[in-house]
Amino acid sequence: MRSSTPECHSRLVKTSEDLPLHQRLGAEFQRRIESGEWPEGRPVPSESQLCAEFGTSRGPVRQALAMLRHEGSLTGGRGKPPVARRTAPSQPFGTFLSFTQWARTIGREPGQTTIEVARRRASPEAAARLGLVEGAPVVELVRLRLLDDVPAMLERSTFVHEVGRVLFDFDPDTGSVYEELLRREVDLHRARHTIDAVAADTHDAELLRVAVGDPLLRVRRLTTSGRGVPLEDADDRYLPAMATFTIENTIEGRTVIGRYRTEED
Amino acid sequence: MRSSTPECHSRLVKTSEDLPLHQRLGAEFQRRIESGEWPEGRPVPSESQLCAEFGTSRGPVRQALAMLRHEGSLTGGRGKPPVARRTAPSQPFGTFLSFTQWARTIGREPGQTTIEVARRRASPEAAARLGLVEGAPVVELVRLRLLDDVPAMLERSTFVHEVGRVLFDFDPDTGSVYEELLRREVDLHRARHTIDAVAADTHDAELLRVAVGDPLLRVRRLTTSGRGVPLEDADDRYLPAMATFTIENTIEGRTVIGRYRTEED
DNA sequence: CGTCAAGAGGTGTCTATACAAGTTACCGTT
DNA sequence: AACGGTAACTTGTATAGACACCTCTTGACG
After folding, report:
1. What is the pTM of this model?
2. CA-based nearest distance B262→chain A, Å
3. What tens digit of pLDDT does each residue of A140-158 get?
């Protein structure tokens, strides 16, 4: 037992009480912006006023403001007081990785029809991308993904065997493979999405109900663990009429990404 | 002239003129990581060592390290010294906006053939996106963009008149419109890229030398000023064999975007 | 009435110090 | 030899003060 920290973090209430000061300040400032207490487009209180209000020095206040500025919620500076700006948040990792979570965030009902789930030997291409020797066992999953019962995307995933084997205890028709993997504490940590366009082959065309040769938006995804070990290699083919990807970019370097339902315009 | 800091950082360190100290430090640290002077995976010098080396206090050093940490080039903390990690840098705003700059960063020679540059009245769609009244004057620019003299992308840009008029003093065959606009101090500040796939129409097919109906990777771009005023609405159609977009995403929220030459694999 | 200058107040930057909390290495004990 | 505790070092956090530079307002002057 330590002698110097007898009861500091022994209470139940350490939910937010125990966080560092600048984090508490940052959360409070963010709340004020989102709640409209600090109206959008209007200057927020000056640093010295905030210091006085919370009884701290400038350091934590500036650190909290810097965090919000980096997220794009605050602009301005150098003489003029910072200005609040409510922004479209970048879609979080889960929303971007999971078709199911994505569909729900845009207010659609996700669905899926499993075409195939099989344990087989890695093809040379998949083996190369997953960092396996050719012929190593992998699990392949092919599903047709639906938005409000309409075909939207054809998903071909190849999992390394250690990850994919949990799919045999799981019915991929019932929900999100991604959420199931997280429940099993699979360390999905980073994903690299490569976007291009391909023509539908006969298989794509039949399942997505388009003509052979029609353009599809393809997203190839390599998902890796925290230590960089590849876990999944996927090839998702979207109907362009159903989904688009957006990248928003400013000269200051802030980047916001999103996947959206295609708008009819 | 300061009396307390006579020659501490007057020597070689001020490589880039008059920037604030923490920015110079950050640039120097980044250089050391990229050059391998601080090997990947190995702990970097401690804060106190860096303070001693550059003759500064901990503040600027910590600010510089925080910047690199936010970009993902450094990990670690609290007790254990930070560790360098070489990462694919997020492509800066200019590289992402300018075909010319992008081509150079991937080591290709950019080229262009101007198909049309014309002042005309805004179509209803373009007017809506640019926030203009229908029929307002705009400048349309259509160019075929080349990589190493091979057609790669067909670019259709619509500029608001105030921005587009400078194009009449400028030969769009000679170089980057984007750089020219920056020279004229046009406030290009934010860009929103929407990515999908389309089939080549007869015009696309002829210029890009593909068959009608072949899949193209389309990027629609709305570029706005710092105050949110739309300046340019563009429709770029890439040959999928020539360019792809990537989005890299981690559970911690770090996002890296890039545009790359399609690899043959 | 317009214009320019001074001043007040704001943020950006830097220094110096102090303590808390985590990590590592070493050394003595068992 | 294995174990455990301590000491040294590291980063995280917070305070206080100082000055530079920018912005906006105000007021004096032409």
Report:
1. 0.79
2. 9
3. 999 999 999 999 999 999 9
